[in-house]
Structure formats: C-alpha cells, structure tokens
Amino acid sequence: MTAGTKPHDMFLTRALEKILSDKEIKKSYHSQLKKACEVALEELKDDSSSNGNQPSSALPQPKKAGFVEADKYFLPFELACQSKCARIVNIALDCLQKLIAYGHLTGSTVDSTTPGKLLIDRIVETICGCFHGPQTDEGVQLQIIKALLTVVTSNTCEIHEGTVLQTVRTCYNIYLASKNLINQTTAKATLTQMLNVIFSRMEAQAAQEAKERERSDSKSSKKEDAGIDVEEGKQEEGTDKEGDDERQEAPEEVEKEETPLEVVQEVLEEMISQVTGEDTPTKENTDQLPPEETGSPTEIGVQPESSQQASPSNISDNPDNLSVSGNVDGEMTQGVFSHILQKDAFLVFRSLCKLSMKPLADGPPDPKSHELRSKALSLQLLLSILQNAGPVFKTNEMFINAIKQYLCVALSKNGVSSVPEVFELSLAIFLTLLSNFKQHLKMQIEVFFKEIFLYILETPSSSFEHKWMVIQALTRICADAQCVVDIYLNYDCDLALANIFERLVNDLSKIAQGRQALALGATPIQEKSIRIKGLECLVSVLKCMVEWSKDLYVNPHSQSNLGQEKMPSTETDSDSGKGTMTSYGSVNSLNTNDGAQTPSTPLDNPEQFETQKQQKEIMETGIEMFNKKPKRGLQYLQEHGMLGSTPDDVAEFFHSDERLDKTVIGDFLGENEKFNKEVMYAYVDQLRFQEMDFVSALRRFLEGFRLPGEAQKIDRLMEKFASRYCVCNSNTDLFASADTAYVLAYSIIMLTTDLHSPQVVHKMTKEQYIKMNRGINDSKDLPEEYLSQIYDEIAGNEIKMKVVGGVKPNKSSRDITSDKQRRLLYNVEMDKMASTAKALMESVSHVQSNFTSATHFEHVRPMFKMAWTPFLAAFSVGLQDCDDSNIATLCLDGIRCAIRIACIFHMELERDAYVQALARFTLLTASSSLTDMKTKNIDTIKTLISVAHTDGNYLGKSWLEIAKCISQLELAQLIGTGVKPRSNKGHHKEREIHNAGHPLEAFDPEVIAKGGLDSKRLANLQEQMGETSSQSVVVAVDRIFTGSVKLDGDAIVEFVKALCQVSMDELSNVNHPRMFSLTKIVEISYYNMGRIRLQWSRIWQIIGDHFNKVGCNPNEDIAFFAVDSLRQLSMKFIEKGEFANFRFQKDFLRPFEHIMKRNRSPTIRDMVVRCVAQMVNSQHANIRSGWKNIFGVFHLAASDHEESIVELAFQTTGRIIFASSGVVKGSDDFTFCKASICEKHFASIIDSFQDAVKCLSEFACNAAFPDTSMEAIRLIRNCAKYVAEKPHMFKDHGGEDLNIPEEDRVWVRGWFPVLFELSCVINRCKLDVRTRGLTVMFEIMKTYGESFASHWWKDLFQIVFRIFDNMKLPEQQNEHFKSKKAEWMTTTCNHALYAIVDVFTQYYNILSPVLLTELYNQLHWCVKQDNEQLARSGTNCLENLVISNGSKFSPEVWHQTCSCMLDIFRSTIPTSLLTWRPDTAESTSMVSSRDSEPDADESQDAVSMDSSHDSRGLVRADSNHSVNSTISQDSRDHKIPRSKVSSDQKLFQGLLIKCVVQLELIQTIDDIVFFPATSRKEDAENLVAAQGGSTEDLQDGSQQREDQGMYQFLASDQLFLLADCLLESHKFAKAFNSNHEQRNILWKAGFRGKAKPNLLKQETQSLACLFRILFRMYNDESRMDAWKDVENMLITVCRESLEYYLSLQSDSHREAWGSLMILLITRLLKLTDDRFKIHAAAYYNLMCDVIMFDLKLEMRSTLRKFFSRAGHVCHISSS
Question: pTM (2 decimals)?
C-alpha cells in the first residue's frame, strides 16, 4: 500500500476489520453492521488505489478530502455504536475518537438524514447514545468520556448549543450513574476540562475579535461585520493549542490495545496539560465519593433534555435578556450574543445553576444519594467556572443576569443547607462572586450577608460546623483590603441597605470575646478555636485598613531629620520596610478584579460617603424611634430634613423603607386623626391597581403593612382600598359600586384568617363562603364561579406581607436542651431563612444598583471611628481572660494595627484608648502588683515598645503612657537581675537599713504590704522579670531612644515632653528617686542635637526647663548629675558653632543661669561655675550668643560668699577680658595665655559686651573681696579701652536692637554699659571702692569724651546725676543711715560735683547747649535740700563752673546763670525765722522757764547762726561741720519732749541750712564777680592800711585779681540783678537781727544753742559784696550809662547802712560791722574829688555821729582819713 493509505490502515481499515473479526458479528441482528463494514472496506481499497499519488490524509491537507471520507465511512461506526456488544462499541468509539482527534472527521457537512443539522451533531448523538444508564459497560463508559472530550476539545470540528449540552449531560450522568470510582473520577475531570475549554474558547474568540478590530481600525474607519459565519471561518485561528498537542500524540499508541486504566491515565494527562487553575479543594472532595451502586437516577435524561431544548428563541423570550451591554472594549454590540460560543457557555452555565437548585430528599441526607452528589457536582463545576472566569463572562450582561437570576437564587437555597459539603461549596462560590462579580451583585451580596452568613453566626441553633465554615469564609473576606472597604462603602454608607460592616465587626467581636451564641455541646477546644478565628478576622480587618491607608503612613525609619551627620546608633532597622507589622500587606486571598469595572462606576468621594453615613445614622435613629413611637420618629426625621412634612412624603416613606415595623405602619394608617387619615389616603393612592384582579390587588395592598386588630381601623382601610380599586378599574362592570368591593375585601380577609389560622378548628367551606357573600353586589349576587375561584386561590395561597429580611435570630439558647432539639429548631430556622433569602434574591435580581469600588484611603477613618470600640473590647477581653499565647499575639497584633490607624488619621481619643489599654496590660503602670506578670504581659511590653518604634511620629500625648512603661520596665529589669537600685547618698538612711532584705522593697512597697513574698514566689517573679531584661527587649527600648532622631518635629517634642514628665515623677519619689528617664533625656538630647535649629529649639525649650527644675533638686546627687550632663551636652552643642545673629547657644546655656540663680547649694554652684569655666577654656572659639549666659552665670557667682566660687569665676572673667597674664592669677585648673579671649574673639563677645561689664560690676560690688573689687574696676576700665579701640565693630554689629542707628551703636552697646555699671558701683559700694569707681568713671569721660556725641552726653549725665539720687531716697530715721548719708555727701557727692564741673569745663562747647540747664537745675536741687554739706557743694560747684567757663558764656547763658542764682537766693531765704511760733503748752512753759535768764543778746556770748562757718579756706566745701549733732545735743540739754524735737528740730535744721546757703551764695557771688579770695585780701589790705601799714603792693595785686573775676563779662543789668539779691539778703538779716522778741522765742524753743540766734555775718557780708559791686561799676568807664543808677543806689544803701549802724545797741554787733565800715570809707576815699564831694555831703552828719561810739584804733584811723579828705575836697582845710 502506498504511503497515502497508511493512515486508513491505521484507523479505518484496522477498526473495520476488528469489528468484522468479532464473534458477535455473526449474529443475525448484526447483519446490517456486517454489511456496512464490508462495503466500507471495499470503498477504502478503491479510494487508496485511485488516490495513490495523493498525499496522506493523515496530514492536515487537503482538508476537503477528509470531509468527504468521513461522511462516507461514518455509517458502519454508527451501527457499531448501536450494537449491544460492548467490545464492538468500544472499537467503534475508539476509532471515532482517533479520527476526530487527528482531524480526519470534522462533521462539518450537512447531515443527510436530518435536515438542519450537521453530521457532527449526529456523531455526538451516536456517541452519547452508547450510554444506557448504570448497566452500561464500564469500558464503554470510559470510551464515551474520552470521545466526547475529544469532540469538545478538537480544533477541527465544532459543536454548538444542544450538542454541547448533550456532551456535558452525558458525562454528568456517567459520573452519577457509574459504579466505578475510576470512571467517576474521569467523568468529573472531563467535565471540568470541557467547561474550561467551552469558556476559554469564548474568551479567546472575544480577544481575537478585539485584536482584529484594533487592526482594522488602524487600517480604515469602516467597521467589519462580525457575524457568526465569519467567526466560524476564524474558529481554527482562534482556538487554544490543546488540540495541536493531541494531534502530535505518538501514533504507535494506537497500535497496542489500551486497558481502561491507560485510557484514564491518558485523559488525566490531558487534564494536567490543559486545565489551568483547577480547583483543588473540590477535587479532594470529589475523590472521596464512593462508587455509585443504585439504579439510574431520575434526573438523567430529564433535566439535561429540557436544557437541551433551551434554544436561543427560548432565551430571547425573556425580555430581560434582550439588552446586552457592551463590555469594556465595546465589541459586543449586535444581538443577544455576539458569538455562538457565548451562547454555548450561557446554556451550560444556566443548566448547572438549575441542577444545583434541585431539592434533596426529605430526611437526613445520604452522602451516596444521586440528589446530593448531583448538587455537589453542579456546585463544584460552577465554582470552577467562576474561578476561571474571563473578561467576557465577567462583563457580558447575559452572564451577569444569569448569575443574578439563577446562580444567586440557587445559592440562597444551598447557602442554608444542613449538608456541610453543600454549604461549604456555596460559601466558596459566594467568595468567588464577592471577589470577581461584586460590582454587579450589590443587592445579592447584602442578602447573603444579612440573611444567611451573619444570621448563622448569630443564631444559637446553628451547628458548630456551620459557624466554623462561615467564619473560615469570613477570614478570607476579611483578609482582602479592597473587599473590606468596599463592603463598608456600599452597604454601611448606603441609606437603604444594612450596615454589613458594622454588624460583621460586632459579631466577630462577640465571638472573639467568647460571648457568641455557641452551638450546644461545643467542646472547649472548639470554643477556643472559633474564638481565635474571630480574633483572626478582626485582626485581618484591621490589617486591611492599615494596608488601605498605608500611603498615609510615614515610617520614621525611612527618613531622618538629621543632615549628613553620623548617627551614634549602628543598628540595622529590621522594621523599616513597607510592612511594619509582621508584614502588614493583607493576604489578598480574594483576587479582587478591578479591571471589570464598568465605565458608569460612581466616583469615590469620601466626603460624600461620610455625609451619607451621617444621614443614614439619623435615618436609623428615626426608624427606631418610629417603631416605638411613630409620631416621635416622624418628627425626628422631619427635623433633620430626612423626610418631608406632607402626607404624600410620609406615605412614600412607608412604601419605600422596609426597615419600618409593618405592625406600627398598620396602626398608624388606621388611626382616626386627620393627619393619619391623610397619610393613609395618600398611601393607598400611590398604589396602582390597574389591570389587576381583585385578590391580586388586595394582596398588593396588604403586603406593605400588618392589618391592625381594631375593627374600625380595618374598616377605614378597606373602605379606602375599595374606592381606590374601583377608580383604577373603572371600566370593569363586575362590581355595581365601591360598596361591593369593600364588602368583598372584608370577606376575603375573614376567609384568609379562617382558613390559615391555627386557632380556628372548623374551617369555612366553599359553600359557606359563597353563601356569606350573597346579595353584596347592590342586592344581587356576584358570579358563583368568581367567588369559587377566590376561595380556591386563598385556600392555596395565604395573603401574606411582603418578605422582608433582617430578622434577628433568637439569641436565647436557654430553651435548647438537646442536640436533636437544636437540629429541629435549626432546620425550621433554615427553611424560614431560605425562603426569605430566595424571595429577597428574586426581588433584587432585576434591580440595577451602582457599586462603588473604593479607591480613597480616607474611608478608613469613618470605618475605624465606627468600629474601634468592638475591636478594643475584643482585644482587651482577649488579653485579660486568656493566657493562651496565640490569643495574646492576635490581640496585640490587633491593637498595634488599631494604633497605627488611629495614629495616621490623628484620632486622638481612639489612639489614647488603645495605647492606654496596651500600657495597662504591661502591668508596669497598673495598680496590680508585678507578681502577676505573665508571658503575655512581657509580649505586651514588647508590642508597646514596637509601637513606639514604628508609630512614634503619630503618638502625640500617648507618648506619656509609653514613657511611663519604659520607666517602670527599667525597674522590672532591676528586679529581674536582682540588682538594688542606686540609692542616693544621705537620703532616708534609716529606711534603707530597715528595708535591706529584698530587691523588691526598693521598688514596690505595695507588694510587700500585700503579705510578703516567700523565696519561691520571689524566684518565679525574678524569672518573669528576667525576661524583661532579655537582649531583645533591652535593644528594642534602646532603639526607641536612638531612633528618636527619626521622629518628625512635632513627635519629638511630644516624646520629650512625656519623658520630662516621667522623669519628674521618678525624681519626686521621696524614698527612691531614680534618674533613668533623666539619663535618657540626656541621651536623646545628644542624638537629636543635629536637628534643624527650628526643631531643636522647640525640644530644648522643654528639656532646658526640665534641667532648670532638676538642677535645683534638693538632692545634691541629682542636681550634680544634671549639671554635669548639661556640661557635656553644652560642650557638644557649642562645638557645632553658631552663625552671627543667631541665639541658639543662649537658649541652650540658659539652665546654667537658672540653676545658679535658684540653687543655694555651694557644691552645685561651684560645679556650675567650674563647668562654665571649662567651657570657656576649651570652646571659647565657638561660643557666640552663649557668652551672654556665661557672663550671666559669673554675674550670679560674683555676689557669692564662697571664696572659691568668686575667685574661679573672676579668674575666668578676667581671662576673657584682659590679656596680660600678670593680671589674672592662673589657678590649678587653667593656664592662661597672654592674649585675652576678648581680644581674639571680640566679634563674638561684642553681643554680650554689656553682660560682661555688668558681671564685672557685680564683682566690684562684692564687699567680701575688696581686692577683687578693685581688680574688677580696672577690668571695666579695660573694657572702655576696647570700646575706644574698636568702635567700628560696634557699628557693624547690629545685635538684637536693630532699630538703633548705626552711629549710636558704639554708645548704646559700648560706652553706655561701661559708664552705667561704674555708676552702679559708685552707688552700691563701700567708700574706697566707690571712690575708685568715681575716679575711673570721670577719667574715662575725660580721656575719651572727645568722641562722644552731644546726645550721648545727655544720656551720660542722667547716669551721673544718679549719684545724687541716693540723696533723693526717703529719709530713714535711724542713726546708722544718717551717718552713712553724711559720709556719702561729704565724700562721694563732693567728689562727683567737682568732677562734673571739671568735665563740663573740659567739654564746655559740646555740653553747654545740651546740659547747662539740667546742670543748673541739679545744682539748684542740691542747694534746696535740707543738707548743709550738699548745699555747700552745690553753691561751690556753681561758683567753680562759672569761674572756669564764664569767659565762654554768651549773654543768654549769663542771663540764665544770674537767674539761677536769683532763684537759689529767693528759694533759700529762711522767712520762717520771722514768723515761727511755738504751738503747745509744753513749749510755752519752757519759754517761761527761760524768761528768767538774762537777755544775753547784749552780752559777749551772743552766737551768730552762721559763725560756725567762718573758717572758710580757699575750698569752702571741705568744711565738715555737722549741724545735726549740735541740734540733737541742744535738744537733750533743754529736755524738750521727743515728739517736739522731731518736728521742730527738723524745721530748725532746715532753716539753719537755708541760712548757711544764703551765706554761701553771698560768697559765691563775690567769688564769681571778683575772683575767689579777692575780697578777703582787700579786707586785709584795708585793715593793714587802717592800722597804718603800707598798702601799695597789695593794691596792685588786688586790681589784677579783680580783673580775673567775671565782672568784665557781666552786663550792667545782670550786675544790678545780683546787687538786688544781695540787698534783699541784707535786708532780711537786718530785719531778723532787729527783731529781739522773735529771736528770744526761737532761743527759748531750743534754736541754736545757748545764745540768742542772729544773722550778723549774712547782714554784713551781703552788704560788703554789694558795696564792692557798686563801687566797681561806679569806677568802670565802660559802664558810664549806668553811673547815675549806681550813684543813686550807692547813696541810698550807704545812708541806710550808716543809719542802721548808729541804731545798733550791742557792742558786739557794732564790732561785727567794723570791717564793713572800713571797706565803705576806704572805697569812698578812692573816689574822685567830684564824686567824693557828693557822697561826703550825703553821709557827713552820720559820720560825725559814728565818732560818738567807742571805736577801735583802725576804725578811728579810717574815719580820720574821711574827715581829712572831706575837709580838703570842701576846701575847709588847706592841705
């Protein structure tokens, strides 16, 4: 035979020959077969000879030949298949399978026997026909399976619709009917494979079409028609590669006989190679099914047949199936199915759904029964289809509708099955639907959850097994983040749907707490395992929420707040990956398909959903209120805007919301109030009864509420119903009026109650019912058949309310006493549940609802807000009750996740609650004793530490709890290691001795109080505590502190705050203060120093304040530690340096100042000074703003009484300020270099220059160390040198006060502080120091004053005048103060006043315009004080000032100067001397007692009030006479009562000082006008002349000195002004001296000692000065214009004076006038003759009278000269 015939040998020839050789072929009933085989063989031979040179038909081409041949040779095989001989059938089937497999038999020709069908349909029918039920040969069964699989998977032949169904049905039936386990397994595997091929082909075809459309779109815009014919041609291109694999099988396999086992092997190998994603769990289930033994099941050939007839027309009859939505790419746009392959898949899917709905037989389920196995298989196959579903299946509307209408309804039935296998499969299918189809099944998913799964969890009657499977399924749901968030979003936030997420979490929480309704008889192990599962689910939900919002979480360890600085920690952070808690990524067990979203998916807007959720909560509250009190509920909803106020709105609400209690609605509608009736009318009017028969209308009416019990209410409702029905059906003539309808409705309700109420024993018959309704139609009867029909319908179908879900299960399991009772109850509940679920499922199968696929992380916030309490309850109870490590681990995991969520959404209340719970379970901070510590508590500690590590950025105030726990943990670690804590020296010594037994006493006195610990318990405790100091815990705690550098700015502040608070608590423990947290604060300060300055300053604000408090702790150890830590930190901080104008160092070093200021302990103060000194010594180059604090510390040290502190501080200060090593003695600690720090780093110190000077001033003022004081003043002088040398640096440096003009900076920041502090030294120190200070101060002014601006001087003099402010203090009456004040005035004030005048003189030109007025005012003020010394100094300085600078005075200044003198004169005239009177009886008696004494006025003892001031040398102010002592002595002598002394003597003292001032002023005027001492010399000369000596030399000198005076600079009117002053003063003194009575009174009152007071000196000196001025003017030719006035005044004054002289009674008084008279006469004698003549004429007579007195020689001599001259001038005498 040619090569071309070889395949026919292999297949056809060999098969035909095999059939013919069978012995059965000889039987007569096989004759037809035999003949057909022979004919076929003949034809084969002919074909092979005629086609000898054609290529082999075993090869793919030419295909046409193959088609013809196959058709020709099919008949013998068809007949063979119909044979009753199994062997022949086997051979035929085997050959057909191979022909199809290798593409020789395609069957694509039309079947000649049956028009409208293809040959392949007939071939399949023939193959299927070989199966006759259970009795079919097992080998044949296997061959049928194999052949059918080949037909379905072959690429060369196509079967569709009914034929596909037939292949599936046959395999299905073989699985159910076969008794052979191998055949069952093969059939099942084949079914799976077939379905896989059918559905994957459909998907592949759609994908191919989409590709081609893309291709054609790119070529042209014309769309190609995608009809079925075209697609069939493309079929071979679009198929899978499975067929190719088959075609390439080794041909030699065919040669040898195949055993059944090998056939199975082959099929199974095909399965493995071709089936992808096989569902292994269901395989395991099926493998365990036992071989079938019973007869043919009833459904074989029934159900599949009806399925087979489901042609496209049948499907299209259903209008819902006609609209097919396009899928994502929009390729399905024509007709119901865009391709026949989709229809095939649809028919198979629908058939399986219907198969799964078949009811099981009553009674307990038999695992071997066909019904159960059929149900299980159909569900397994459906699961397989769904799990492998592609895009077409997931999006095509036909399939979606099939799922809704068939699969979901089937599941609602199977989901309540008591058979665990069925229930488990239903759950698996539900999970797959939830994963892949939830977008389309929003309403269905709600029913599953609400009515089935959660119900099973909640009811006590469900078995443990059911609960277990539900919770297993929930575990998978809860592990899918997308799914969890979607459930919340689509149900809990939907106004109309149940709160699935909330209910789920609450149920799981109850289970986790062990509070769930457990099945009767559940073992403790089962109880615990379901509890763990509940916890697992809760933790999964939280992990999903964490996963969902993970983008918000910032892991602190993936970033650093420090720059490039090296970190102290070298640890590697194992927790810094994306998943921070044991891999937070949720296990996505449900592969959520987001790609299948339709374009109409609503947008995910968190705000909108949150609003909806709030509205829903209002709605639910309102409905709950309505179900209790309808009116309250409606009012509440209306107030919140959820319901309109009109009856129509309320009626619509009743119709639409199924959560309302139907009984309450019925009662509300039946009420007889106006509003209720309006609502009822609206309610009925909203119903549509058109085209409905009466009973259907009544059913429709009554399904929305329960009829109330009262007859009147029912009556009103029925009346309205009847009216409405007649309105809707006005065209019917059945009822004469609405009355008929009303009565009939009533009768139907009665009939329903009668027939269906268990209370009614004797049921109404049809005849009775008809009879009852006689004459109701307007006195006529309704048709009997009509009433009969009504009766039958009511009898068969009770009128019920609409099925509404959401009925809560009966929670009380008390009534269930046995497992049998539980099962019965459960079955009843399940039936009820199933019918409810089915009804609901059917009602929502056509509802279109938008499913939102969540994308926004913000949804987690409201989810957690709603569910955090049940979570917390579950975890708290778990940790509290159980010691099981699994439960504890889950609870801790859950708490960690919850904290993470609360943290990232900044939910403070929730976060704090969880962290507190965690802290509580560590037992570290709880009131319970540490002896209860268990492993779970140790784990809790580890969790808490881990939370701190990973979520530190978000913990906020919760850091406090964590810090407390860590603090207590250290305590626990000490217990664990048996170490006693470091006790602080000197504290509670006795207590320590008493408590020395245990390591615990030191920590936990309560434990001891509770009854002590025996050694065994102590050992146990130590073992547990030892766990706390394990390496992992210690390292983890350490990581919190080293990891603090990774915290963000706000978090580190909170962390530090918490740590400081805990540290304060630790330190405040009276018995055992600890420094654990304090050391940690030091550590984290060290780590975080590299932060940006903004953050660091916030941290240091808290830490610095803490150091302030700790540094002042009464316990020296603690304070010492704080100071030492501060030193180390400061050194490190200062090392970093600082840019100009920053103030971080200043803030950092502030605690040193605070501690120095508040802590009085010498040790600590010494420590602070040493620390600061060390800082200066080693880090001075880096210090900038810190100098301020350094000087601040030294300033505080400067006033200390401890020599070592003062000395060290001063040495360091000295080193900073001054260069030469000779100045500052180096201590042991420091060796000072030659150049001072100030010189090297003046730019850094300049900002703190004022503080440096202030510090030195404080050293100067420390009276305890005079050497230091003097040295300090010298250093201040040194500072002035710096300012003088480097003024530009002050100018350039703006410092803090940037508003200071540049040119003034050197003054404000340089000179002013130096001079100001010197003034402070002057005001505060002892005499020698202040004198030195005063000298230096004025020396600086004199040395550097050149560069001072005028307004600087103004400021400076305000400081200088402060020296006199000491005098302005209120007078203190103690003697010590008075003597100090006296000393002050006689020394410092004198010194200062003269120095001021010196400076004024030196810089007169600058100072005069600015300060002269102030200086005069100051001098005026001094003079006016009741202080003799000050008054003297004031007048003396005025004199010095004018004498020194008078030559530079302008006329205006002279005028000012004269006015000043005049003011001083007038304000110091002691006028009270003339008017004072004693005002008490005591003084009167005292005066009378002195009256008896002789009048001493005339005696030689009379004492002048100003006589004590007569010893005036050149510098008068040096006189140191104290008036006070005289007065007080006098007072004691005269025994004046003390009170009188205090007031009167004070007055007298003031008057006395005024007298002194008057005298001083007279002298001052004299000195100013004529130069000091000129007048005195003149008096001496006159005296000498009068006594007869030579006066010529003296006169010349006198003239010269007079010219030195200011006379020449004064204008005549100014001189007259002074003359008036002097005259006024003279007249006052004269008046007083003449008033003997007043003088007596004063004398007796104790004024001025033992003699009567007088003002002789003032009287004579004022007049002498006046004469000098007038005579000088009279002789001054430059003042000729004033001569006339001078002459008149001279004559008047001289005349009055002489008259007064003549009137004097006392010799002593006259004697006092002696020198004045000599002066007057001498001056007269010097006049020219003309003038002398005029004057001599005026006084001649008076002069004659003078001779009458007993005169001294000099006086007589002078008078002689006068008369002699008069004689000569008047030409009386000749010479």
Answer: 0.66
